[in-house]
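In response to a reviewer's request, we include the raw inputs and outputs for one of the modeled complexes. The two entities were modeled together in a single run.
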Amino acid sequence: MYLTKDEQAILDGEQGAGAQKAMELVTALGKIYGADSLVDITSAHLSGASYKTIGEGGLKYLSDMVAGGAMVAVPSTLNPVGMDRTRWKEMHISPEFAEKQLQIIELYGKMSIKKTCSCTPYIGDNVPSLGDHVAWAESSALSFVNSYIGARTNREGGPGALAAAILGKTANYGLHLDENRKPTAVIDVEDMGGSVFDYSLLGQAVGMKMGKGVPYFRGIDPSVEDAKTLSAAMAAAGSVALWHAEGSTPEAGNFDISGLEHITIGKKERQEAYDKLNTVEDVQLIALGCPHLTPKEMHDIASLLKGKQKRNKDVEIWFCTSESVREQCAEDVAIMEQFGPVLADTCMVVAPIEGTFQRTATNSAKAGNYLPTLCSQKVKFAELSDLLKVIE
Amino acid sequence: MIMNGRAISPGVAEGEAITYAEAFSFLGGVDGKTGKFNVRDGTIDGKVFLFPNGKGSTVGSYVVYDLKVQGHSPAALVNRSAETIVTTGAVISSVPMVDNIDVSLVRDGDRVVVDGNKGYIEIKGVDEVDIVSSIVMVDGKILTLHRPEKAHHYPGKWSLVSGHVERGESPAEAARREINEETQITVSYPDAEMPVFRVRDGKTIYNVYAYLYKLKSADVKLNDENTEYRWVDPEDLLKMDTVDKVDFVIDSLKGCF
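The model returned the following structure tokens for the whole complex.
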């Protein structure tokens, strides 16, 4: 791999041990995946934020980075953490967990990383442009910015994205290169509805069928919310990091799709996806906002709930969004709060809910995939309107 | 012996080898607090840990860091093929790492030096020997030789026509010479050959150069290196008690039978 004189100097330790470590990691990953050089990035988004997932090893790593003077060189945001910073008691979080979690947030802050913690930073806190090279972790967010915005990122891990943020550079391979952004299969979508639930099922079905690769959709024109849900579902059911939609996403017109394999996703395929995710009927918690609720989704939920009362006291409901969206949507929040907490910068997957709940409902395929493995939950998977009926 | 690979994480370390034959997840595969393996016996603490490749949760990188912090770090990591999780763990934890190594040739207990700067490993006390192994075939049958019961390596096993490559000799020359010495058959050019491969026996790693010679007829006269010979069908040879990798050689060359 070609390194400039300045890059080589960093690798040789001339800018301190922190930058050297970051360069060692970025170049090691570049070497594995055949990068020819490094490329400048305009932003980073980091995973590895919840104490539940990164544990003591992660906490120590971050404190050592901070002690070494690490500082990010480009605007950087952080994934959801294990609790709402102020309302963690309502989430049944232990004080010990809360203390560790607050330490982690503090450490990221010291490296100049924005302390808003969301899986949808592209809604307002961190918005790349078409053609930007970026280093994003968080499988759903990186797929969204690759696909719906046309920025360029690989599937970074937490420490890799942090190293890239510190350097302002990442290794030039994979989805940074034109040739790897070509579609690998055409997805013909039939009988499609327009809800989060419908896009979850579509994404689940495609993720299960394709695994990885670059799907090219025909027959959908996704909104921001649809694209968010679809990206999340395909990254959880498979490892799709980039997709195109004909006549809709910015790069879709760049490619010749003749000769590609065609996969039809209709009612039957979506039913198979549903059967895989739905494992229980009777639940203790309804958790919405995977990925985090957008202002439009907040408003839609508030409209459905307005004028109603929470009758079912046995089931809790959580609404998960980012701090900035919660602030923006004060009126909707006031309505939703009568039913359950609107939690900021956390979610049902990264919070330690397994200490309190065993059965959780969601309308997100991503949550449907991770709740069983990361939180030991049985899952009810259904439309938003059906879920809200449970508590009315 | 030295095995060349690719430098992944800088630093040089030496330790006792501990191996795992399958893809390994640090999350769940080893206890970050104690260094004890959950998927095999033993500990990773201070060892050179060799396994084909990483898998599983990206949190595995932090488990490597946890091992370091707790004082139970591996001395070094060696992979067949490095991926993101293990590479990240090695680099952030300053554990030397090399990949592109055939880890199946290393045994638990070997002393191994890992050079993560230059990209090689050295297995101490293990020697490397170049050998040739030839399929001599007449009418679809393969000539197989029986090794003496008191042979140093592979006693009493059935083998192809094999022997050491001598100093100054090319493998092809060695194959011709061995066939002539052991059977008095004269051959010229091989009908096929396969890429060199390695096989381990005790403290020796053999670099095996394998050839196929198809002859119209052959009259075998053994010397004292073997006790018996037979002409057998390939599938029958696979059922016999053979030296290592005869199946691999037959499988690689059978397209030319």
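As requested, we also summarize the result in words. The CA atoms of residues 200 and 364 of chain A lie 6 Å apart. The longest strand of chain A covers residues 285-293.
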